[in-house]
Amino acid sequence: MVGPFAWFKWEALLKDGNVFIEGFGITALVAVLALGVALALGVIFGMLGASHWKFAKRASRCYVEFIQNTPLVIQVFFLYNGLPKIGIVLPVLWVGVIGVGVYHGAYIAEVIRAGIQAIPKGQREAALSQGFNYWEAMRYIILPQAQRIVFPPLTNQAVFLIKNTSVMAMVAGGDLMYRADSWSSGNIYYGPAYVVTGLLYFILCFPLAQLARHLERRAEVSA
Amino acid sequence: MIKLEGVHKHFGHLQVLKEIDLQVATGEKLVVIGPSGSGKSTLIRCINLLEKPSYGRVIVDGVEITAHKAPVHKVRQSIGMVFQQFNLYPHKTVLENLTLAPTLIRKVSREEAESTGMRYLERVGLKEKAGAYPSQLSGGQQQRVAIARALNMHPKIMLFDEPTSALDPEMIKEVLDVMIDLAHEGITMVVVTHEMSFAKEVGDRVIFMDEGVILEDGPPEHFFNNPTQERTKAFLSRILR
Ligand SMILES: Nc1ncnc2c1ncn2[C@@H]1O[C@H](COP(=O)(O)OP(=O)(O)OP(=O)(O)O)[C@@H](O)[C@H]1O
Ligand SMILES: [Mg+2]
Q: Which of A82, A91, A201, B129 is in Cβ range 3.0-4.6 Å of A78 for a Cys bridge?
C-alpha cells in the first residue's frame, strides 16, 4: 500500500516544479491586476455610495447587492461562457482579472463607503463652509481621515482576493490552483500537490494578513 | 450684506423655517436667540447654503446664492463659519488647519497663508500651539483655533452657531473674549447664542425665533426690556432668573 505522501510522489512534483512556479506567477499576476480593478471600482462606487446624489447612491447599491449576493463562480462562468454568445471573447487571464476584480470591487466599495460615513459630518460641513467643493472636500479632508479606518479591512480584502483567484481553475485559467488540479489528476499524486499549492498561497497571503493586523493595531493606537 | 426673502425650509413634513425675511447690514452684529428646535441653526446655515431653502431667496454680498448655478463655493470663501462642535481637521496641525483652505481654494502662497495664520493665532492667544494637533487642545482652545481658521480666509461675514455651547463653563469666557474683540472690527457677524451677556454687550440687533418664525427684531435693549410677544417674555423669564 502506497501512502498519499509517498516519497516518489514528492520527487515527481519537484521534477515538474516549473508547472507550479508558472501557476504561481499567473496567480500573482491576476491578483495584482484584479486588485487594481477592484480598488478602482471600490473607490468610485464607495464614494458614489456615500454621496448625497440619489442616482449615484442607487447605482452603487445595485452593483454591490448584485455582486455580493451571487456566487463568484457563476459570475466567472458568465464571463467565460456567456459573453462569447454575444460575441465578446475574453482571454482567460482577463476573465480572471475582471471576474475577481469586479467581485471584490463590490466588497471594497462597501469598506470605503463605511469608512467615509464614519467621518463625522461636521468635517464635510466645515470643508464646504470654507469653499471646498464636494470632490475637494473628499480629497483633502474626508479620504485622508477615512484612510486609517479603511486600510486594515482593505488589506484583508486583498487576502480574500488572492485566494479567490483560484476560481480560475474552473475555467482552465492556467493559475496555481488549475496547475495543481490538472497535474495531480494526471498522476493522482494529490497529496504533495495540494500541500505545496496551499503553501504557495500562504506565502502570498500571510504577509498581507500580517500587514492588516499591524495597520489595525496602529489605527487603534492613534484613535 | 445678507438678505433672506421669503425663506422656507422643510425637513420632510416638518416645517422648520416659515417665510423668513431678514436683512443684515454690512458691519452689523446680529444675535439670534430662541429655544431649542426653533430653527436657529437652520436659519444661519441657510446663509451659506449648508441648508438649501425649500423656497425663497438668499442674497449675500449682492449674489443670489439660491439661484440656479450660483457660484456658491466662491461666495462661501467670504463667509467664515464657526460650529458648536469646532470641526477642526483632526489630521492636520493647528497651523495647517489655518492654511489648508487659503492655499488650496484662495490660491494664496504658503508663506503668506502661514504668516497671516500666525498673526490670527497670536490674536486668539494660541501662537505657541501652531504645531499641535487639535486632539491635544482643550475645547476652548479648539474653538479659538476654529475662529482663527475662519478668519484666515479673510471673510466679510462670520457666522457663529452656538460657539460656546459645547464648552465647560471656565472656557466660555476665553472664546467670548475673542468674539468680542472681533466684533470691534467692521466685519459682519451673525451669532446664534444663549449667552445673554454677549447679546447685550456686542449685539447691534437681536432677533428672537420660535417655531420657525422671527418673533422679535430690534436692539438688545428693546429685546431684554420690553419684548412685545408673550412667548418672548416666557422665554426670558425662564433663562434670566
Ligand atoms: N437634517 C435634518 N433633518 C431633519 N430634521 C432636522 C434636520 N435638521 C434640523 N431638523 C429639525 O429642525 C428643527 C429645527 O432645528 P434647528 O437645528 O434649526 O434648531 P435650533 O434652533 O438650532 O435648536 P438648538 O438650540 O437645539 O440647536 C428641529 O426640530 C430639528 O429636529
Ligand atoms: Mg442649533
A: A82
Phi, psi of A22 (to 5 degrees): -60, -45
* Helices of type H across A16-120: 17-50, 54-68, 72-77, 92-117
Under DSSP, the state recorded for A80 is I
Nearest to B101 by CA among B74, B126, B122, B83: B74
Spatial distance between the Cα atoms of A9 and B206, rounded to a whole number of angstroms:
91
For residue B35, give the ligand 1 atom closest to its CA: 25
Measured CA distances, B114 to A9, B97, B117 (Å): 71, 10, 5
Q: If you measure CA to CA, which chain A residue comes closest to B159?
A: A129
pTM for this prediction = 0.85
- A183 near A10, Cβ under 8 Å? no
Of A215, A177, A212, which is closest to residue A24 (Cα–Cα)?
Answer: A177
For B166-179, how does the pLDDT look when each residue is reduced to its tens digit (9 = 90+)? 999 889 999 999 99
Domains, chain A, ordered by start: 7-222 (1.10.3720.10)
